[in-house]
Amino acid sequence: MKEIVVISGKGGTGKTSLTAALSWLAGADIVVADCDVDAADMHLLLQPDFARAEDFHGGQVALIDQDVCTACGACAEVCRFDAITPGNDFYAVDPISCEGCGYCPRVCPTEAIVMEDRLSGQWFVSRIRTGATMVHARLGIGAENSGKLVAKVKNEAKRIAAEQGKEFILVDGSPGVGCPVVSSLSGADFVVLVTEPTVSGLHDLQRVHELVARFRIRCGCIINKADLNLEVTAAIGEFLTANNIVALTELPYDEAFTRAMVAGRTIVEENDGPLALQLKDCWEKIKQTA
Amino acid sequence: MKIAIASGKGGTGKTTVAVNLASYLAETRPVVLVDLDVEEPNSGLFLGAEATDGRDTFKMIPAWESTTCSHCGQCQEVCNFHAIIALPDQVMIFPELCHSCYACSELCPTSSLPMQPVKMGRMSWLSAGNLSFVESRLDIGQEQAVPLIKQTLAFVDERHAAVPIRIYDCPPGTSCPVIEATREADFVVLVTEPTPFGLNDLKLAVETMRHLDKKFGVVVNRQGLGDDRVEAYCAAEGIPLLARIPNDRRIAESYARGQRIYEHFPVVRRQLAAIMDAIKEAAS
Ligand code: SF4
Ligand code: SF4
Ligand code: SF4
Ligand code: SF4
To answer: How many CB pairs under 8 A join A and B?
Structure first.
C-alpha cells in the first residue's frame, strides 16, 4: 500500500480540485483521505454519503466548579495562556484561550478544577461516487490539535485500505508548514506538490519543499495555471530540476475548473479534452513513481 | 483601529486585500501592516522592499539537568502534550511538541527542568513613508504558530502604539492561529471567492467570527468567476458585503508579478475605498 499526499503550502493553487480529479481517475483502486480538515472542501466534488460519523476529542479544557472555588487566585497565577479570569467569588476559565495544559488543577488547593475532554470535531467514513471509500473530517471552531485530527483521518484511511486490499491512499493534505501538514506528511510514500507561477506560489513551494525534504520523501510537482506567468513557471522548473523533483505536468489557467466546481463535479467528468488527458497521464506518472 | 483580513481557506485573495488596503490607506495616513500568516508570510513580497531589520523569536522549553534529577518521573506524568518522557536513567524532551506551559518545570521537585529559550522563528520589519510593515516567519520544523503570533502582536503594540490603523494579514482557516490573530481586531474582513469552495469556507469563517462575537463583513474576490450563492448567503444572513473585486485575468497576472493591483486597476482602488467606508460605518 502506498500513500500519496498532495500539498501546496499556500492555498488557492487548485490542490483540492486536482486531488478530487485524481481520485476520480483512480476510481475504486484507492482510499481517499481529506486531511485539509481546517477547510475541508473535497466533499463538495466527491459527494460522500457521510455514512459513519464519529466525534473527535482532541485535547482538554479546564473547568472550574464555582461552588468549590475560594477565589484564591493560584490557578490564574500559573496559567501561561491568560485563560483564567478573576472574579469576586470565583475564578472562571475562558475555554477559547485555555490550551488544556492541565497545570491549574495541580495547584488548586480546593480541587475545584477538572480537565474535560474537548469535543473538537467530527470525522466521517463515506462512500463516494466512484464507489471508493473516503475518510474526511470537520474541525470544530477554534479547535487545537488539527494535527491530531489529521492523524486520525490518515490512520483510519490506512486501516481501511489494508482491510480492502487497496493499492493507494490518496491524501488531500493540509496547507502551511505547521503541525497539521507535518501530520499529513508522516508516513507518506510520495508527495505531490501543487503550485502556481506567482511570486508567492514559488516562495511557498520552496518553504514546503524544505519541510518535505526533511522527511526524505520523494516528490513531484504540478504547476497549475502555468501560463499565468511564464517567467515564474520557468523559475519553478529550474527549482524542480535543481532539487530532483519530478515535473509531473503543467496545466493551463482554465476557468473550466471553477465551472466543474459549481456543478459539484471533478474537472475530468466535465471535460474530456486535453486537460483531462493531461491529468490522466499525470495520475499514471504518479502511480509509477510512487 | 485594528482590521483583520481573514478567510476560511488560503488563496482567496486575503493577502492581496491586506497589502492593497494597507498601501492604499498609507497614501493619506500612517498604517501598520502586520503579516500574521506566520507559516506562509507573503505580504512582504508585494511591498517591493525587503524587511531587513529583524530579530529572532524564541519560545521557552524545559532543559533537563541530569545532575540534580531524582528520576521521580513526575514530569512525564504532568505534561499533557507528551512533550517529555522520563526514562529510568534519562529525561527526553521533544521541543516541537512543547506548549511552554511551565508545568513540568515549576512542579519538578528538584528544579531540574529550567525553562530556556529556543528559536522558533524570525520577526522582521521595515518602514517606508506612512507604511510600516512587520512580519513573522515560523522556522521550518516548528509546529506552533500561536506563540509567534502572540509575540508579534505584542511587538506591534509596543513599537507602533501611536499608529491609528493596523491591518493584520491573518492565517487561513478557523483553528487556533486565526483565533489568536483576530482576537483583538475591531473589525474582521472575510475574503472569499464566489465558488462552492469559497462559500463552504466562508460559512465556517462566519461561524467562527460569530462565536468570537466579532464585527465582520465580506469581500468577494474574483466576482463573476463562479455563481452567486455567496452573495445570496450574505444577503440571507444579513452579512454586509463590503466590496467586490472583479474576476479579470489581467488582475491575476498583475498579482502573479507581485504588483499591488490597485495601482494598476482603478476599479480595485474604488473597491478599497468602499471597504474602508463600510468598515467605518459598521464599527461606529
Ligand atoms: S489548563 Fe492550562 S491553559 Fe487551561 S486554564 Fe488551566 S493552566 Fe490555563
Ligand atoms: S486555584 Fe482553585 S480555588 Fe483558587 S481561584 Fe483557582 S479554582 Fe479557585
Ligand atoms: S520531575 Fe524533575 S526530578 Fe522528576 S524525573 Fe522529571 S526532571 Fe527528574
Ligand atoms: S512546559 Fe508544559 S508542554 Fe512543555 S514539556 Fe513542560 S509540561 Fe510539557
So the answer is: 170
